[in-house]
Amino acid sequence: MRTCGTPRCLTVALVALLLGAAGCDRHDAVQPPTLHLGEDVCAHCGMIVSDVRFAAACVVDQAGVGYAGVVFDDVGCLLDYDEQVTEQRIVQRYVMDYQIHTWLKAEDAIFVSSRRIHAPMASGVIACGMRADADALAQQYGAEQLDYPQVAAMRAAGVFAAPPGGSAAGHLDQPR
């Protein structure tokens, strides 16, 4: 058997090895789903996703079948779905930037929470990608700023904000 010890052969072998290793992490290739405003149905509450500013999504690994995008009309619906998923594993979570309407990875977003924010399912939560936007919205709404783990903890504790004047019309503000 003939072996190759030349620098060119070693370079080719190293490049092939690196490309193979890079292909092992499929999570790097995960992208948010395409949102069809006015057509997509929230996977949790069943409402039509009609206000891009509050949309959320996740990508789930369907146990060897591939990835699938799941859309929501409110961050609260994503959080509720996250608690209930058993057969599918969430690979990535996305939220829509309230100001510029682009997907953000949920862990990179800055969340603003206030009873004065009228989200589709009354979560009172919006997401921002830039600190200046979050600061301005927090000041406008008299709101607090949170990261994704804090928002998830609030949801788990049943502490989502209800709109002024009483309880929310949606399912998010019902006690667990």
Strand content: 15-25%
> What is the SS-derived class?
alpha+beta
The biggest beta sheet reads: 4 strands, antiparallel
Shape: globular
> Helical percent range?
25-40%
Number of strands: 7
Unreliable spans are 8-27, 161-176
Tally of separate domains: 1
The N- and C-terminal alpha carbons lie at a distance of 69 Å
Radius of gyration: 21 Å
Please render the helix and strand layout as text.
Elements: H1 7-22, E1 56-61, E2 67-72, H2 75-84, E3 89-96, E4 103-105, E5 110-113, E6 125-128, H3 131-141, E7 144-146, H4 148-156
Antiparallel strand pairs: 1-2, 1-3, 3-4, 5-6, 5-7
Features:
single chain, 176 residues, alpha+beta, 4-stranded antiparallel sheet, 3-stranded antiparallel sheet, 4 helices, globular, disordered C terminus
What does the model show?
Mean pLDDT is 79; it is low at 8-27 and 161-176. The strands form 2 sheets. A 4-stranded antiparallel beta sheet has the order 2-1-3-4. Strands 6-5-7 form a 3-stranded antiparallel beta sheet. It has one domain. The protein has 176 residues and is an alpha+beta fold. A hairpin with a 6-residue loop joins strand 3 (89-96) and strand 4 (103-105). The chain has 4 helices and 7 strands. The protein is globular and about 45 Å long.
